[in-house]
Amino acid sequence: MAYPYVSDREVRILSRNFGDPSARRLETYEAQGGYGALKKALEMGPDAVIDEVKASGLRGRGGAGFPTGVKWSFMPKDTNKPHYLLCNADESEPGTFKDRELLRWDPHQLIEGLLIGAYAIRAEHAYIYCRGEFFETTQVLAKAVEDAYAKGYIGQDVLGSGVTIDVTVHIGAGAYICGEETGLMNSLEGRRGQPRVKPPFPAAVGAFGMPSTINNVETLAAVPHIVKNGGAWYREQGTEKSPGTKLFCVSGHVNRPGNYELPLGFPLMDLIEDVCGGMKDGHALKAVIPGGSSVPILNAAECADCTLDYEGVQAAGSMLGCASVIVMDEHTDIVKQVRRMVQFYAHESCGQCTPCREGTAWMTKILQRIEDGRGTEEDLQTLLDMCVQMTGTTICVLSDSAAAPVESSIRKFKDEYLALIRRGERVGAA
Amino acid sequence: MSDAPFKNPGWAGNTGEFDLTEDQVRGDEFVGERPKAGGHPSASATFPFMLPEKNPDTPLFEGEYQERFEKILTRYPTKRAALLPALALAQEIRGYVSPESMDRVAELLDLSSAYVRGVATFYTMYNKAPVGRYLVQVCTNISCNLCGADEVLEAFLKYTDTEMGEISEDGNFTVIEAECLAACGFPTCVQINSRYYENVTPTEVPKIVEHLKADAAKGPR
Question: d(Cα A351, Cα A215) in Å, to the nearest integer?
């Protein structure tokens, strides 16, 4: 065992250096063949790199699952405007803790992926937007960027190719919404991190008004492996529609929480029972949030046959999101946890759109009232009505994300809400 | 090596089968001290801006800080984009972002004071008022909450003898509730100034508080 928990069912590609403190060093990374993929990419040419990534079927790991190669191909090829590549390291979806591990254990893997991405989309400047709280992690990344500059991997004339790519590490200052791509762009520009209306899409008008592409840390970290080994190799793992491996962040009531790199399509119950060593204290499973707090909750029955790929989780009634698996046992107070999640969205709403600004605050109040034993059955219908009005009516999906746990929990755990409303009975109360 | 009396190697230390030192996990030894003037411009905007020492009367952006500020400006196509790093730098120097600091930043970046205030108040990490020597932020979001974060928060309030958001009488602590800190597998996660404390349980809290008090008693360094 290492990294405090690993499983022999893992396929450790991106996470191969987790738990190895020497891997942060440029020399170690180079000794592993590091920056070889960058050299190869520079020989291939930008379009061939995009084709290879397209062939791999790599899908964006930030939550939406959009094919990365296709996204890159949207960048205009016939413009004199500067292009920007932005790396989204503003990891803040509750339940997600993979990007921080990728940044602090293997910073050069990300930098290499970032450089290849920037080259492919013809960007001369790439920004890594780290969330502000990651002070320690950002220091590790900053050192790695400085080292890569010193060795000529970054800067003017990258490895003698004549290509210029600058990298700047930028830090945020505590706002969940800056993880939304256009919110991140506004924040990078020195504005409030409020999402923008799309279209225009970032590939046309992005950061600083220029064509931009934004990718998640995990997406870019996979790129060197794809360029080095080929798209077909990447497809050996995972499913037809969801190829490759994915870091699963497991938290909550399991014996061995942590990050596990598994092929997409892995069975959810195997993840909990085998990889994570089963439920804590032998308790029974009550519910799982499979993709971070923004996706619908699954009850135990729905988890039984759920496979962890974009399609499998959707078939079970939720979304894979960023594969943040939050596990809840039989003693969990669902109403309290849903209230806590909605409280988070109320705190993080940027305030632009009325349904979100007002809706998240009202929902928090109503859920708190129910939790305190002062709710009515009518409140449940009010909440459900609000969920409808908060879905698909705003600039970004924060509002929809707040509605997802509310709607799904009322539908699947209505008896818990009713027990509180009718008899003041709280689950898990001693 | 850390001399902390509690087991906290940055992650999973209380539960994992894990034999690295705290410095190795955090990469402290790899990073070390960075020059105040900012080092390489690519990373000049990334310095921790929640520090124990607070010097509210220090002039902003002079000497080495001025040098760093100028490096930051070279990394963006617009002056406005340097706003977040500039606010962070102001907080790093003074401990919080005062109205006067915001006015100065506005002047330097050719922005209006109102605009700068509008941006500064959008982001939670800029302290708009002074805080204690240690800003303790306890994550109580879902993953930590499932594992007892509410009790950890209560314990911090109890052992620092302070109310939520207030500065303790000795000036050492401000305790607040935080949203998800992206360390969900290692609950409860607590950010104290620029540093993460993970797998914190209520029984660890008095040890951490005592450790910080002892650190404060050593005086400024």
Answer: 25
Residue closest to A69 by CA, chosen among A82, A78, A79, A56: A56
Q: How far is CA B15 from the centre of its chain?
A: 26
pLDDT number for residue A310 = 95
Radius of gyration of chain A (CA): 22
Distance, in Å, from the CA atom of B115 to the CA atom of B103, rounded to the nearest integer, reads 10
Q: For residue range A118-131, what is the model confidence (pLDDT) as tens digits? A: 999 999 999 999 99
User: Within the 124-153 window of chain B, which residues sit less than 8 Å (CB to CB) from chain A?
Assistant: 124-126, 140-143, 145-147
Q: Among B21, B31, B180, B192, which would you mutate to test the A interface (most chain A Cβ atoms within 10 Å of its Cβ)?
A: B180
CB pair distance less than 8 Å for A337 and B142:
yes
Could you tell me if A1 and A19 are in contact, meaning their C-beta atoms sit under 8 angstroms apart? no
- Alpha-carbon span A410 to B63, nearest angstrom: 59
Whether A180 contacts chain B with CB within 8 A:
no
Q: Which DSSP helix (H) or strand (E) runs through A299? A: strand A298-299
Q: How far is B105 from chain A (nearest CA, A)?
A: 12
Q: Which chain A residues have a beta carbon less than 8 Å from that of B125?
A: 132-133, 172-174
How many C-beta atoms lie closer than 10 Å to residue A162's C-beta?
A: 9
Enumerate residue ranges in chain A where pLDDT < 70. Answer: 1-2, 428-430
Residue B86: partners with Cβ closer than 8 Å, 6 or more residues away: B61, B69, B72, B105, B108, B109
What does A212-231 look like in DSSP terms, one character per residue?
EEEEEHHHHHHHHHHHHH-H
Is A217 within 8 Å of A97 (Cβ atoms)? no
Chosen from A27, A143, A279 to mutate, greatest number of chain B CBs within 10 A? A143
Q: Which of residues 48-107 of B touch A (CB under 8 A)?
A: 48, 50, 75-78, 80-85, 87-88
- Residues B114-118: what's their mean pLDDT? 98
Distance CA(A195)–CA(A187), nearest Å, equals: 9
Residue A63 CA to residue A55 CA, distance in Å, equals 20
The reply to whether residue A340 touches residue B43, judged by beta carbons under 8 angstroms, is: no
Q: What is the ipTM of this complex?
A: 0.94
